Amino acid sequence: MKTYNCVAPCLFGLEKPVADELKEMGAENVVAENGRVLFSGGAEIIARANIRSRFAERIQILVGSFEARSFTELFDGVKALNFEDYIGADDAFPVKGSSVNSALYSIPDCQSIVKKAIVERLKSVYKIDWFDELGNERKISFFILKDRVQILIDTSGEGLHKRGYRANSGEAPLKETLAAAMVKLSRIYPDSTLYDPFCGSGTILIEAALMARNIAPGLFRSFAAERFDFIPSSVWQQERATARDMIDNSVPFRAVGFDKDAEMVALTLANAKKAGVDGCVTASVADVKDFKIPTERGVTVTNPPYGERMLDIDTARDLYKVMGSVFEQKHGYKYTVISPDENFERLFGRVADKRRKLYNGSIRCQLYFYYK
After folding, report:
1. What total of structural domains would you count in the chain?
2. Do 131 and 34 belong together in one domain?
3. Among 89, 142, 150, 154, which residue's Cα sits nearest to residue 115?
4. Does some domain include residue 210?
5. Which contacts of 342-351 are long-range, i.e. CB under 8 A and separated by 24 or more positions?
6. Pick from 10, 11, 46: which is nearest to 28 by CA?
7. Residue 302: helix, strand or coil by DSSP?
8. Does one domain contain both 202 and 295?
């Protein structure tokens, strides 16, 4: 069976969770880099990673890699790659890319050169002079870092954070991949009760429930590579069947959300139902000033609104002070809060027991852990 070299781009700070989950899936040669994880495996690994990955943004096939400091070197390097293994005579193959700290910095020029080189390669293979590109799409991307070129084919289609359960979201949605990572890093167990006093559209609650029940996040959506001729449909069928067999709906996990906006509460409940976890996710209207964990033990994971996206800075900071007063410091209670505000700990009133740098989209944040 053919082995594919692949890349899993991810949000900065999530490289280790992505690498760990790929290893658990059976991927080989797993290497974490900044904002991406390299790995290899057969066609089943491509399907498995798309269906099961909770933290990666997408899965790409690495067609080839080479050094290029001139357009001639770029053209020759691309043309030398075996694109006929991936692109048929009728397939569409749009090209986009990026360049960082490299001699070749003009993206439009690089895009044009890469496209031309692929066309020339395929012309020589298929013995035709024109490609209508009316068939299935193979999205090509190039990534140039310090003059090292990587040519990739996307297998995911829509980003993997698009699980399919969140048709609508709140004003400042948290990416599903980041929400899942917050839950993972908070060490939420299948017999836990999780609380989110700023539940919004329910992303943290739902990702936690999916993880607790071992429901693969991509189980109910489609992927670009399902239309790739070189990956048999039987591979996707088998991987989906295996993912379904792994689901455990018997776990006693509970996720409890609150939000002062009734529309957000209704949206949380609707999204949980669509995700198939409405049996363990509840939500109600409440203000954070009235927040109290009603159980002996509980884990709070939350993304409070902050100035860059929803509230003015002063209002957001007032919320942090309220949180510090109602997030009771008690044995058995743990809190995880994500915030971009460098003054969060001072406003909250306690220094975090642990912190971790993450990115919410392009916003640099800290994940604050309180567990003592």
Report:
1. 2
2. yes
3. 142
4. yes
5. 342/366, 343/317, 344/320, 344/368, 347/317, 347/320, 347/321, 348/320, 348/321, 348/323, 348/324, 349/321, 349/324, 349/325, 350/324
6. 46
7. strand
8. yes
With respect to residue 12, please indicate whether it lies within any of the assigned structural domains. yes
Q: Give SS3 for 361.
A: coil
Q: Name the token pair of 310.
A: 């929803």
Q: Report the greatest alpha carbon distance in the chain.
A: 73
Q: Which residues of the chain have pLDDT under 50?
A: 308-309
Cβ atoms of 59 and 156 within 8 Å: the answer is yes
Type of residue at 130: W
Q: Please give the C-alpha separations between residue 239 and each of 1, 48, 222, in angstroms, as whole numbers.
A: 16, 6, 13
pLDDT of amino acid 170: 52
- Residue at 18 is within a domain: yes
| pTM for this predicted structure | 0.94
Per-residue pLDDT at 309: 47
What is the Cα–Cα distance from 309 to 226, expressed in whole angstroms? 36
| Same domain (yes/no): 188, 333 | yes
Average per-residue pLDDT for the chain:
94
- Domain identity same for 330 and 186: yes
175-229 pLDDT, tens digit each: 999 999 999 999 998 889 999 999 999 999 999 999 999 999 999 999 999 999 9
Domain residue limits at 117: 4-154
Whether 201 and 61 map to the same domain: the answer is no
